[in-house]
Design a protein that fits this description.
Length: 235
Amino acid sequence: MDAAVPAFAAFATRRLPRLSAGWRPAAVVVAAAVLAVLPIVPKPLPVAAATPVPSGWSAAFGALRLPPSASVLVVPVPMSTFTEPLRWQADTGEPRSMVGGYFMGPGPHGKGYIDGNGTPPAGLYLNAIWVFSQAGLHRPSAAGPPAADAAPAGPPAAEAPSAGAAPNARSGSTGNLPVKSVTSTKMREQISAWKVSAVVAVATPGSRLGRYLTAILGSPAVVTGDVMAWRIPPR
């Protein structure tokens, strides 16, 4: 797009006549036109560092041996303000289908629209626990794993690595959405409603998220690198 502007100016300079005797070439007019359209010429997107694929990501999916039609709940759950899981999927091709994401298209009034409010409370809650885990609040308690109904408590030691407006446990929100505690029953019901064949979490067994999901789903079927995975039997 940027290269097209000077090319157009050169073409117009060759084709347009002088405006009148003693005037400069019509390139003056063309230059003014170019200056007028420069503000609408797209600028290059800024370079941003992307979070690498978690260690054990591909190995976990290889061990699960899921059918091509299987849908997976990935934790953290991708949403419009947190797209890292979508990048991991694009980089590896795994999983083929997963819960979450966002919609870009025409809104009700014909203008561009991004649907980022479709993540249910259970998904926001999982993301909040994931942020706490990434922030370093993962040391096992002497009393054992946290109760499945318990909400994360206390501020994280540091912000979690993320892209854009990621889930924020410090403020108790994911993007601009408040995060409320979700009971173990509600969490299991939501996972069942998603109709997934597996849950794959970027977590370690001793992390807050790892212990929470183990309390909800039982022992993981796969633990490799920084990834834990559970097979969900069909209902």
